[in-house]
Specification:
five-stranded mixed β-sheet, 4 helices
Length: about 180
């Protein structure tokens, strides 16, 4: 899933932290140890399932292609990571180093991130982003970028909470049909 397809709540804003009877934050799932690791071929069906549950579209061919390009682990400038809890994949993040695009020095790009909804308030995305950044730093880059839909307040709020701000580029597009 790309960074512009995470859902937002019916009111158009990011999910609010739930509070339980004791005043403590309620967890969608009991707080389990989350581990972040490189994707494995056996994780693909779970990644497809997370993406399909969130976007409403099953894109199995797309994800097989992404796994082939980013999941071999032999290229440190390409990172496909998953978060695992209780023996199952509960999130994923994908990023890479891009060199000299638009005259910019090499930098990291995150182009896909998603977390199972019931794990969204458990710090999973933060852990995955930190692991991705560590890998990109080992590749020699010192800046991270992403792009997302203007109305995707959930993902925008997440990236802003991680210290990301507006960058120096303006995305432009045009229709090629007609």
């Amino acid at each position: 899933m790309t960074t512009d397809s995470l859902p937002i709540d019916a009111g158009g804003s990011a999910a609010r932290r739930r509070v339980g009877k004791t005043g403590e934050p309620a967890r969608g799932v009991a707080a389990a140890a989350i581990s972040v690791r490189a994707v494995r071929h056996t994780d693909l069906e779970q990644v497809i399932g997370i993406d399909a549950a969130v976007t409403g579209l099953e894109k199995a061919d797309y994800w097989r292609s992404i796994l082939q390009r980013y999941g071999d682990g032999d290229r440190p400038e390409r990172q496909f990571l998953v978060a695992e809890a209780n023996g199952r994949v509960v999130g994923f993040i994908i990023g890479e180093v891009r060199d000299w695009e638009f005259g910019a020095a090499p930098c990291g790009w995150v182009f896909a991130i998603d977390v199972q909804p019931e794990y969204r308030l458990d710090g999973v995305a933060t852990q995955m982003l930190q692991a991705l950044c560590a890998g990109l730093r080992r590749s020699g880059v010192r800046k991270l970028r992403t792009i997302l839909a203007r109305d995707n307040k959930l993902v925008l709020s997440f990236f802003r909470s991680q210290g990301m701000t507006t960058g120096p580029f303006i995305p432009l597009e045009m229709d090629l049909d007609g």
